[in-house]
Amino acid sequence: MTDTDRSDLLTAISSAIAAAPTGKSAMQQVVRLLKDAIPYYTWVGIYVVEGDELVLGPFLGKPSPHTRIPLGKGICGAAVTEMATIVVDDVNADPRYLACSIETKSEIVVPILRDGHALGEIDIDSDQPAAFGGRDRELLEPIAAMLADAWEDE
User: Fold this and answer.
1) Domain range holding 113?
2) pTM above 0.90?
3) pLDDT tens readout for residues 108-126
4) What torsion, rounded to 10 degrees, do the Cα atoms 78, 6, 26, 36 define?
5) Which one of 24, 122, 136, 150 is most buried, by most CB atoms within 10 A?
6) Structural domains of the chain, count
């Protein structure tokens, strides 16, 4: 995917979020657009912070056994607790990884932050090792910020 394609994707996602009638609908659109546009994104999902857990929201890919993750546990829990994007080139080498699929080789988790609080996160797996880099961060971190702006406190 070229930088122009990524720019077009970011524009499409921005428009979809702006047009979404609800925060949940915005999340569903983001998941769909990312999964459809980037072939090495084999699992795309959004987790929502509820109390002291992450709860699986909209996702596309194989079903995950991890529908609830305690904050601080796994790579997903770490990203929210640290309020920072985490990229893992080899999930099998990271002791924090909570195995979901034997096909998963790498992961990126981008927290959705507003006013110094984590609302949720974008979690993406790939069946390719070291699939994620700076270009993925440059795409996903602005999307997380857009989702934070569209977030509905429920």
Assistant:
1) 3-150
2) yes
3) 999 999 999 999 999 999 9
4) -90
5) 122
6) 1
